[in-house]
Amino acid sequence: MKNRYIELMEKRRSIYALGKNVEQSEGILQDTIMEAIKHSPTAFNSQTSRAVILFNEHHDKLWDLVEEQLRSIVPVENFARTEEKIDSFRAGFASILFFEDQDVIQQYQNQFSLYAEQFPIWSEQATGIAQHSVWMALAQERLGASLQHYNPLIDQNVKDEWGIPDNWKLTAQMPFGSIEEVPSEKEFLANEERFKVFR
Ligand SMILES: Cc1cc2nc3c(=O)[nH]c(=O)nc-3n(C[C@H](O)[C@H](O)[C@H](O)COP(=O)(O)O)c2cc1C
Fold first, then answer.
1. According to the 3-state scheme, what is the secondary structure of the chain?
2. In the CATH hierarchy, which fold is given to the domain comprising 16-180?
3. How many A from CA of 76 to the centre of ligand 1?
4. Which of 147, 173, 182, 188 to mutate to test the pocket of ligand 1 (most atoms within 8 A of CB)?
5. I need a labelling partner for 198 at 20 to 30 A (CA). Which of 29, 89, 95, 188 fits?
């Protein structure tokens, strides 16, 4: 029998056709996201990861901000495609903003100077793990999500809009919602190219 976690991993995909047909309450979703981040490992248990969960008009506002910022850098002739992409994220139910607390990294660098150079790297790894944990938890709820990176373009707008502390560094944005279209099959490299096993 296949490992059930691996089965769920296969179900977690980047879902770009998102909708608002979500049965779970906002409270349940918020708890699920918070628990997934809480139980994600961090170096020295430093718990550097932070998140902001945006529902309703806050979710819409995020994609308005992204659109506004992109309008200033994307050539007008290409903007229709950009707008379509942003609309697909806005069509989702909610969005999660992932951050890493830079003050905590600094504290650990001071306290464990031998590893000072490693803490920023471990923080980047921690945010990736947190993102994957949330993505998997949403997949378990039969919800779709994708991972977006409009940081640092939107950093200041996000800070101003939701009063985010300066020491929280934005690392990713995750729109999520109902799965309106199943993604196409994924291609994989041959195992021989990726793994070596000695036994
Ligand atoms: C570190 C990282 C950064 C990514 N950045 C983006 C991104 O900015 N925009 C996006 O649409 N997908 C992004 N993705 C999603 C990948 O493109 C996607 O996971 C990959 O193609 C495999 O497809 P799957 O998620 O359906 O399994 C990112 C994934 C990772 C792990």
1. CCCHHHHHHHHCCECCCEECCCCCCHHHHHHHHHHHHHCCCCHHHCCCEEEEEEEHHHHHHHHHHHHHHHHCCCCHHHHHHHHHHHHHHHCCCEEEEEEEEHHHHHHHHHHCHHHCCHHHHHHHHHHHHHHHHHHHHHHHCCCEECCECCCCCCHHHHHHHHCCCCCEEEEEEEEEEEECCCCCCCCCCCHHHHCCCCC
2. NADH Oxidase (3.40.109)
3. 26
4. 147
5. 188
Index of the ligand 1 atom closest to the CA of residue 128: 1
What pLDDT shows up at residue 76? 94
State the average pLDDT for the chain: 98
Q: What is the pLDDT of residue 106?
A: 98
Residues 6+ apart with CB under 8 A from 17: 88, 144, 179, 180, 181
* β-sheet bridge partners, residue 186: none
pLDDT band, residue 1 (cuts 50/70/90): confident
Residue 114 CA to ligand 1 center (angstroms) comes to 33
- If you measure from the C-alpha of residue 37 to the centroid of ligand 1, how many angstroms do you get, rounded to a whole number? 19
